């Protein structure tokens, strides 16, 4: 029986038919990688998408993009996602006032001014007081012009 084991382990390997050791290679579709970065997928999610370990992904990125760190590559491609999002927001702002207001606050430094809101309320209160004063004046004038009952 021992002879059979040694025969199995001492097989001659033909070098022209040798296979790579380890698991089969998972090729990364770099266009898909860049698109996943642009929609802000995490490193773990991207690795899962390609069915590889995160370390494998990081090493593949370093190899593909020549010495750049994963974070640098990720940042570069995620910026295109920001452009797409901003473009969509501007389109939405044309028909949705709340989006236009939000963009104004984010990009133009506009803000809701509570003192402005307070000023509007004060103006309304003053108008109401003026109306009541006019009404009281009419009542007083009317009472002075009418003869008093005796």
Secondary-structure map:
Elements: H1 2-9, H2 30-38, H3 43-49, H4 54-64, H5 70-93, H6 97-108, H7 114-145
Give the biggest sheet.
none
Structural class: mainly alpha
**Oligomer state of the chains in this structure:** single chain
General shape: rod-shaped
SSE string, helices as H and strands as E: HHHHHHH
Number of strands: 0
Strand content of the residues, in percent? under 5%
Helical proportion, percent range: 55-70%
How big is the Rg?
A: 38 Å
Task: Give the mean pLDDT.
Answer: 80
Low-confidence stretches: 4-11
Number of helical regions: 7
How far the N terminus sits from the C terminus, by CA atoms, comes to 141 Å
């Amino acid at each position: 029986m021992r002879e059979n084991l040694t025969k199995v382990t001492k097989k001659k390997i033909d070098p022209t038919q040798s296979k790579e050791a380890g698991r089969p290679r998972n090729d990364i579709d770099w266009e898909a990688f860049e698109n996943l970065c642009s929609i802000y997928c995490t490193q773990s999610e991207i690795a899962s998408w390609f069915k590889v370990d995160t370390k494998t992904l990081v090493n593949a990125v370093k190899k593909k993009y020549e010495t750049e760190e994963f974070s640098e590559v990720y940042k570069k491609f995620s910026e295109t996602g920001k452009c797409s999002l901003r473009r969509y927001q501007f389109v939405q702002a044309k028909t949705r006032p709340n989006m236009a207001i939000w963009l104004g606050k984010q990009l133009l430094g506009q803000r809701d001014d509570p003192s402005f809101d307070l000023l509007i309320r004060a103006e309304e209160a003053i108008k109401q007081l003026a109306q009541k004063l006019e009404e009281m004046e009419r009542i007083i004038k009317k009472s002075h012009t009418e003869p008093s009952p005796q």
